[in-house]
Sequence to fold (555 residues):
Amino acid sequence: MLSDIEIAQQTKLKPIRDIAASIGITEDELEPYGRYKAKLNEKLFDRVKNNKDGKLVLVTAINPTPAGEGKTTTTAGLGEAMAKIGKNAIIALREPSLGPVFGIKGGAAGGGYAQVLPMEDINLHFTGDMHAITSANNLLCAMLDNHMQQGNALRIDQRRILIKRCLDMNDRALRNTVIGIGGKMNGIPREDGFIITVASEVMAILCLASDISDLKERLGRILVAYNLDGEPIYAKDLNAQGSMAALLKDAVMPNLVQTIEGTPAIMHGGPFANIAHGCNSVRATKLALKLADYCITEAGFGSDLGAEKFLDIKCRCAGLAPSAIVIVATCRALKYNGGVPKTEVGEENLEALKKGICNLGVHIENMRGYGVPVVVAINKFPNDSQTELDYIEKYCIENGAQFALSEVFAKGGDGGIQLAEKVVEACEMSGDFRFCYDNSLTIKEKLNEIAQKIYHAKNVVYTAQAEKALKEIQKLGGDSLPVCVAKTQYSLSDDPSVLGAPKDFTITVRDLTLSNGAGFVVALTGSIMTMPGLPRVPAAEKIDVDENGVISGLF
Fold:
């Protein structure tokens, strides 16, 4: 059996100009980055702004497990299958972060015959967006430290600095650092730390901004510190927003690539859903809606994280409403939720499947709560037994959920035709899209709504630090903003070891931060880290490049 990267390397890619032409994009609306990827410029946005919007389809999943669910694979394969049934579709995806690529996941551009290409470029440096975001974030940090070094006219309290430097790599040693040591000329000594780039507020701003003017205004609103009188200091007080926006002038343009079968794919932005809002950019999604009859997009991790944030933050911010939601599920992951170790999920175990399938039930119930038609994509793996697949189908029927078997990994678009037909049917159903919570509620009330309706918790409790932070955020108008919960992806609760469908547990908020430029409040729960670490055996150990520049090991 060929590996993902071998399949990708054997595919004859179409020139990106041909992919663009297939959806009506002209050459002067492209900014090529080599032969097979390009950025889409403002000329295109201006030309299509009055086009009618297509249907928006969100792909999400049950809680992720080490066994894998295949959400990006399903998204790419669904896009390919739409073409097979004669539908004009574009997929809109997040860009991979180097952290997971070299950490535990390896490549993140789909798999098998449902991949987005060129997968090596996408998984590594792509068009430089991640680096631009890193640079803009770190420029702001450098300007803040320089301001304090050069007299501190704003009277910034060095004990109350809120922003951290970032790096697009898993590096736990940088979580907590001390900077400015070595004498007067090297800055003011203080505690600092790094977060991963995808957790930076600059990433969130890039993904939620409507254009470069909005981007610059949002950058200026970033809350960076408090002064000695307890008053807020924003990036605009440091005059940083202009230079930050200059670094992002190319990054703000979405990227055009293609699937193995030549389906257009727009990739842009990459916030994680467990520590950020987990969706590709508003600009990419809106552009895809203007260019195609169907925009198929995904949100990170399970529906309790990525989908909730896509619906309650991104859709609220951008005025979007999905026509259908696809929930990806696998026999392997459901058996894992039923207590089977990762090493045994490939073996038939109907009892474990019956025990773990309640996790799927919660995600179906949650997504229906938004008033949007739901389709379950049963992502088939080669060793899945027919008995297990039949049981999942029976469960969907008993729960009144539309479903389809997906074999896009092995068969590409041909393996997703049934799923595509079900999705088209769902998009024609009447829906009544609604948010999980009303934005007029207080921060605590919003968190209660999410915890009870999405996680099925009994209540939410707050540490002393969280209560203190909450009061400060409320003083700055934070009650008017949606909430982004940083929570483990592995469980509906805030404890990654609790699988299945837990109920009546307590969510503990240990801290709150204000992403003022992005326009949401972040609630940190459990032991979630904004700078991940590498595993015992990182994927980086298996990645290599030969003397001809051919990369191996990216799956």
